[in-house]
Design goal:
The chain is mostly helical and 259 residues long. It has eleven helices and no strands.
Length: 259
């Protein structure tokens, strides 16, 4: 007998939360604020979304922003994990790199957007560079924390079996750091989406950030909320995908909850 597909309680609770928020949004917009200029009802937002889809502008904006996010997020994630491994492997390199990481992390990334536009021009490279900067640091910091807080007992056990440094890293330290890395990536998703919006507000002719800017200037609140809603959906989807990846790479973290 095939096992029945069981939906986790967290999924139902999450769906109920989103449905409640949708109902509350519609009620507050129609009966409390009563001004579509300040707060558009969800029905008006969905109507504006349908019009934008029919005109083809929504698909174009989504594809432009998605490309910017994927390129910047992927490059930043790979680079951050590699730098985190390097910093965790060498105390000398860690001391050499750490001041630069601290200085760059404290730099307001919004100020870098026009600078990247000046350096790289108007287009994918400049926008992806902004996403790269905002995603890189949370992934790096979490990767480094995961690799340097591995249980010393586990390391001693595997070394007692004459494991090499590479085996210690591959079998103990990196698997133990996976939850930290996933956490960094989840933070990177949210920051990366913000980076996309900021980047597209400087020298862009398409994208969700550009559409939000134009809608705000035209006082088109419904269309403005379309962009905000799409970003919120993208954030939820991205985080859920990373949760799925974590379940595949670090299933031991969820065994106690499932038993």
């Amino acid at each position: 007998m095939p096992r029945k597909l069981r939906v986790r309680p967290a999924v139902w609770r999450g769906a109920l939360s989103l449905l409640s928020a949708a109902v509350l949004w519609e009620v507050v917009a129609r009966y409390v604020i009563k001004s579509p200029l300040f707060f558009a009802p969800l029905s008006a937002v969905l109507s504006a979304m349908f019009k934008m889809w029919s005109a083809g502008t929504l698909q174009n904006d989504v594809m432009v922003s998605l490309e910017t996010f994927v390129v910047g997020f992927t490059a930043a994630s790979i680079a951050a994990v590699l730098v985190g491994v390097i910093m965790a492997s060498s105390e000398w390199l860690r001391d050499f790199i750490d001041p630069w990481i601290s200085a760059m992390y404290a730099t307001p990334f919004i100020a870098l957007a026009p600078l990247f536009t000046l350096w790289f021009g108007i287009g994918l490279l400049a926008h992806s560079a902004v996403v790269f900067v905002v995603v890189f640091f949370p992934v790096l910091i979490n990767t480094f924390a995961g690799l340097t807080t591995t249980d010393a007992v586990l390391i001693e056990v595997i070394r007692s079996f004459n494991a090499s440094n590479w085996q210690v890293f591959a079998k103990v330290r990196f698997p133990a750091a996976v939850p930290f890395i996933i956490t960094g990536l989840r933070l990177g998703v949210a920051r990366g989406l913000v980076g996309v919006v900021v980047a597209e507000m400087f020298g862009s002719s398409a994208g969700i950030g550009y559409r939000i800017l134009v809608s705000g200037q035209a006082f088109d609140t419904a269309s403005l909320f379309v962009g905000i809603l799409l970003l919120a959906i993208a954030g939820v989807v991205g985080v859920e995908l990373l949760k799925f990846v974590e379940r595949q790479l670090a299933p031991w973290r969820f065994q106690e909850k499932s038993e």
